[in-house]
Structure formats: structure tokens, C-alpha cells
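Input (structure):
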């Protein structure tokens, strides 16, 4: 599809929902792609956040590419020490991880910016808090002085629009309820639905790197 086409479709989806396209940021998911591909398919079109879900792969690319890096995948607590290298962690999925990240932030003497992951599809194999766990979890995470909670994130099931749209709408409602700005939702197959329902960050990989 290519990055310019993805941006065009994001803008169209935003306008359909009565939103400004400027409200939505594309996070280009670069996992598995070479530095050369990233330069050609992403950075040649502008400065976009780059999303990685594997710490070691991200660190290698960071040594070569100057960009705003986001961590978007499941994170083991023993890898929390690398998170100051990232501008935003999308996948805070447990109180144990929150405490580990807070300790890292304290050591760095600056808060780490995070999104709290919500398992709205209630899939047992997926990470994140269930919706009913979110109020207590957010309250406890917000007590940690070296974490800044900026929003929510979800990875929905592979499903039809009839299933996905209400889940995306629900994440937006939850973000509003808790006074959070960012809603990280939507990937290559469903980012337009996510934008229509309030996404502020869409994590798109395959559609960005594929050929028109």
C-alpha cells in the first residue's frame, strides 16, 4: 500500500468521523525490516515514530537510525531497563511491569511515558488488563512517581467490523472516562475503523512496507 497511501486513508477516515487528520499519528511498525527498507519506505516521507516489539532488534536499529522510537510489544520485566531509550511504551500490561518501569525511571531521574494495555477482546492469550480491572490498576499505576500514563492501548481480535468497531469505541470511552488523551489502536487491517472511533496512534507495519 505504501506510507503515503496509508496517510491518505487515515486522513479520509478522520474526516468521515468529523476529526482533523492531525489528531492521528502513524507509528510505522518496523519489526523485521532492514535499516535500508525503513529509510526508503518510511523516513524518506518524513519523521514518523518507529514502533518495535523486540528490544534487541530495536537497539541495533537505534544505533543507526535517528528517530522517535516506540515500544509496542509485550515487555518482560527484565527488559524494562532498556525502556528509557523509547519515547513511549505502548504495552504496560501488569502492575509488576509498572513497578519495574517505575524503578527504571527513578534510576534515570525522569518519568517514563507509558500507555496501559487493555484486553477488551478478553482473549486469554493476549496481554493487558481486563476492563473491570482497569480502574484499580490505573489508580495504582498513577501513584508511581516515575511513570506518566498518557493513554490506553489495545490489540483487538481478528474479527469483523461489527466486532471491532464497538471495541475501538469502548477504548475511546475508557480513555475519556479516565482523562487520558492517547488511544493506541488499529493496525494494517483495521486502522481506518480505529481512526473513525477515536484512535490517536495507529500501529501500521505491513501496509506501510507493502508494494502498491
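Output (sequence):
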Amino acid at each position: 500500500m505504501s506510507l503515503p497511501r496509508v496517510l491518505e486513508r487515515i486522513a479520509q477516515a478522520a474526516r468521515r468521523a468529523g476529526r482533523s487528520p492531525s489528531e492521528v499519528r502513524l507509528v510505522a511498525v518496523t519489526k523485521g525490516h532492514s535499516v535500508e527498507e525503513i529509510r526508503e519506505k518510511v523516513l524518506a516521507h518524513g519523521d514518523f515514530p518507529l514502533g518495535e516489539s523486540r528490544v534487541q532488534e530495536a537497539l541495533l536499529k537505534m544505533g543507526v537510525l535517528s528517530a522517535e522510537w516506540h515500544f509496542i510489544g509485550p515487555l518482560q520485566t527484565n527488559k524494562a531497563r532498556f525502556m528509557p531509550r523509547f519515547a513511549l511504551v505502548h504495552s504496560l500490561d501488569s502492575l509488576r511491569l509498572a513497578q519495574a518501569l517505575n524503578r527504571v525511571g527513578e534510576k534515570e531521574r525522569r518519568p517514563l511515558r507509558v500507555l496501559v494495555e487493555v484486553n477488551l477482546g478478553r482473549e486469554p492469550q493476549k496481554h493487558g488488563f481486563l476492563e473491570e480491572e482497569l480502574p484499580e490498576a490505573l489508580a495504582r499505576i498513577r501513584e508511581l512517581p516515575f511513570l506518566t500514563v498518557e493513554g490506553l492501548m489495545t490489540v483487538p481480535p481478528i474479527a469483523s467490523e461489527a466486532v471491532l468497531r464497538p471495541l475501538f469505541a469502548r477504548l475511546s470511552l475508557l480513555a475519556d472516562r479516565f482523562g487520558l488523551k492517547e488511544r493506541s489502536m488499529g493496525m494494517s487491517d483495521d486502522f481506518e475503523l480505529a481512526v473513525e472511533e477515536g484512535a490517536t496512534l495507529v500501529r501500521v507495519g505491513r501496509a506501510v512496507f507493502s508494494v502498491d
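Notes: Strands lie at 25-29, 50-52, 69-71, 88-92, 112-117, 147-153, 182-184, 201-204. The chain has a mean pLDDT of 96.
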